[in-house]
Amino acid sequence: MTLVHGTRFRMSCNGRQYAGEIVDGKWVIEGKTFDSPSGAASGVALTKSGKTTRLDGWGYWEVQVPGDSGWTPFKALRPRRVVGNAELSALPGVAMIGAAPQIRQLFGLAV
User: Could you give the CA distance from residue 44 to residue 64 in angstroms, rounded to a whole number?
Assistant: First the structure.
């Protein structure tokens, strides 16, 4: 997913606040440039003991798109994967006789 130029982002991790901005498709924070939300989160966040760590940026960042006043959890913008009948029927115990919409809904998938 690409965020528009000027989108602001922020996160809190281990009692510290981090903030940056999307510049030409890159995540720029604290003078460092990253290609992804996870790269940015992992590149700046430290553990309580001061060591680097790997973070899933989708779950940490909030974004504010230019022109919006509010903040949105970045994970809420993540595209949802559409699962086909073949994939659903491969799940153990799933019978596909006209049940695709109900099964999709059960798994929280697009109907």
Answer: 19
In degrees, rounded to 5, the angle at the alpha carbon of residue 54 between the alpha carbons of residues 49 and 56 is 125
CA R_g for the chain: 18
pLDDT score of 78: 77
What is the full DSSP assignment across 78-111? SPPPPPPHHHHHTSTT---SS-HHHHHHHTT---
Tokens of 94: 């799933």
- What's the pTM value of the predicted model, to 2 decimals? 0.66
CA distance 22 to 105: 34
Beta strands in 30-86 (DSSP E): 32-34, 62-64, 72-73
User: Which SS3 state, helix, strand or coil, does residue 41 take?
Assistant: helix
